[in-house]
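Record type: monomer structure entry
Structure origin: computed from sequence
Chain ID: A
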Amino acid sequence: MRSLILLGLVGFAAQLVDGSLGMAYGVTSTTLLLAAGTGAAATSATVHLAEIGTTLASGLSHWRFGNIDWKVVAKIGVPGALGAFAGATFLSSLSTESAAPIMSIILLTLGLYVLIRFTAYGLPRGNLGKPLRKRFLAPLGLVAGFVDATGGGGWGPVGTPAILASGRIPPRKVIGSIDASEFLVAIAASAGFLVGLGSENIDFAWVGVLLLGGVIAAPIAAWLVRHIPPRILGSAVGGVIVLTNVRTLLRGEWVDAPGGVQTVVYVIIAALWVAAVAYSAREYRREKAIEAADAELLGSAPEEETARA
């Protein structure tokens, strides 16, 4: 019972982050399930089955708050589903021993990307209003869907920053559109795992608890996306993913590092993680101060023109 309650809290926290940032439900949940000793393919299958419900709830919540661009959902969702089905069947064919370190490497790469991307660059806002073309979104969806299924997460870490980097639609609509299109990806990945694994390797109690936690968090996250600083959250989540998957690799058969080496690596990563979050918080405050100063200057300009008249 205690493990189920903990899993429900993981689902709640992961969806809270995912719905606010447009990524990290799958990566966070998969990382923690792998750390608990669950097989790679079974872990990804469990997470994707839960995501069918969480992404539906998240998509509806984002739609209610006006956070979705349906043209983007259509152009990226179908290729994403094809990539996810292919990735699920590929992962199902690997042995558990082979798949676990491969998945950790994928997750570590995604975690580093999230950490560096949000810490160093924040959210780009140029090119707003320009259309996102199918020739950009379709290959992006195909790759993101494949990575998502093989890594137990990746739809958001691959898709969200790529669309944000274009600067063509507001960040809240990027996040809402990615979350809504992930519903198709979750269905396709789940179908691939059921074909490749069968249902006997999946713990449906875990699926249900993850789903429940995520569904409760979905409307809260859709509201928070208008208020929470994504730059700080991205740095924080990226650090969790990096630290957890480095731990998995260092303790695995591929590396099997001595305890002293592990401790030194953890301390270094933790220090860099704290520095990254602090830097993101400082840059966020600086950006807000600049925006406030610009708004004040714009507000005072009409008054000066009136005084001259």
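Annotation 1: The chain has a mean pLDDT of 75.
Annotation 2: The CA atoms of residues 67 and 173 lie 4 Å apart.
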